[in-house]
Amino acid sequence: MATINYLTTIEFDFGAVAKAAELARAGGMQRPLVVTDPGLARGPVFARVLDVLGPLEPVVYDRTPQNPDEDAVMAAAAIFRQSRCDGVIAVGGGSPIDLGKGAALMGTHDGPLEQYAAILGGIPRITAKMAPVIAIPTTAGTGSEVGRGALLTLRDGRKLGFISPHVIPRIALCDPDLTLGLPRGLTAATGMDALTHCIETFLSPRVNPPADAIALDGATRAARWLPRAFADGSDRDARWNMMMASLQGGLTFQKGLGAVHSMSHPLGGIKEPVLHHGTLNAVILPAVLRFNRSHAAGKMEALERAIGVPAGGDLAQFIESLNATLGLPRSLRELGVTEAMIPRMVEGALKDHSTATNPRPLSRADFEALFRDAMQ
Ligand SMILES: [Zn+2]
Predict the structure, then answer these.
(1) Are residues 157 and 292 in the same domain?
(2) Cα-to-centroid distance, 22 and ligand 1 (Å)
(3) Assuming Cys at both sites, which of 100, 140, 161, 218 could form a disulfide with 243, CB separation 3.0 to 4.6 Å?
(4) How far is the CA of 30 from the centre of ligand 1 (A)?
């Protein structure tokens, strides 16, 4: 049995953000909660979005932390209720979009937040009461603009997935103009997240040939255009293609991710150091690809052919060399992860919702070995 879902209306091109107010109104929004983060709130991209939303009565929440957590979700949801908002417009990378989804959930559903986590049986508890979300990505990586999940860190430090078809944004406005000013480091890290989404979902054993085709095209596009977007942020073709690769990664989330995300999710829940999701995936990906090879050799060869991995090399080596080109770290140790953190990370990875769709089953010992490999 194959379950295949494509639900979001996507407006994709330079200038797409200009349609935000018209589409929000058409979707019944007059008083949206506009969610972003403190860095974006001060910049020209957010000013442009607020300008476009002029005909509406937007209420702004701009305190999204780098890894969105329960306190921030509940604060945004309280503003949603107090201001009698009728929808959420999330502007930013994965963190504001996931926080926006959390606010749309907790602004319309009773607490506590924990009961809606996928691994705690929360999927059927998220209902059609959920407020509509419009996502406006300002990075090319997350895919959350079309994703059915939000990754949120509970007060006890667990970073969990909140997943439901009702969590999928009704509309995604993908405007590559908004990414032209993205700094090089964020271009690299978020772009590697997009590439990881395409690779992990392609390797997932769940049957969904349409999603496989999208993932393969997205991986090819990301591998080809990310070095160009990194080298010259004003390259419009590169920005357009990276935003498309990011969207394609998000469209394939329904196949489920794999061990890279199982490992990066608990690491992203650590309070100190604060670790970037895309950077973590880039660092972890080669070790997981080597681990998975025996159980997904044919698919890895298809990826290698599509991406154009040089003869004699393999996908893991290709990713290591791409990471070097992009100036990304080589190991978790370089990011400040210590041996003492690993046992708790292994527990988190074992329970993560992405573990079930890794092509090769994982034991505790496997995760211990993978974390050790990624520490080198
Ligand atoms: Zn990701």
Answers:
(1) no
(2) 30
(3) 140
(4) 31
Q: What domain range includes position 123? A: 9-178
Average pLDDT of the residues in 74-98: 97
For 7-64, write each residue's pLDDT tens digit.
Answer: 788 999 999 999 999 999 999 999 999 999 999 999 999 999 999 999 999 999 999 9
Domain boundary among 178, 213, 239: 178
Cα of 31 from ligand 1 centre, angstroms: 30
Going from the Cα of 110 to the center of ligand 1, the distance in angstroms, rounded, reads: 28
| Residues paired with 173 in a beta bridge | 11
Shared-domain flag, residues 206 and 273: yes
Domain identity same for 121 and 90: yes
Q: Which residues contact 156 (CB under 8 A, 6 or more apart)?
A: none
Average pLDDT, the chain: 95
Q: Is 158 among the domain residues?
A: yes
Same domain, 196 and 343: yes
Q: Which residue has the tokens 């895919």?
A: 143
* CA of residue 251 to ligand 1 center, whole Å: 12
Dist. CA 142 → ligand 1 center (Å): 6
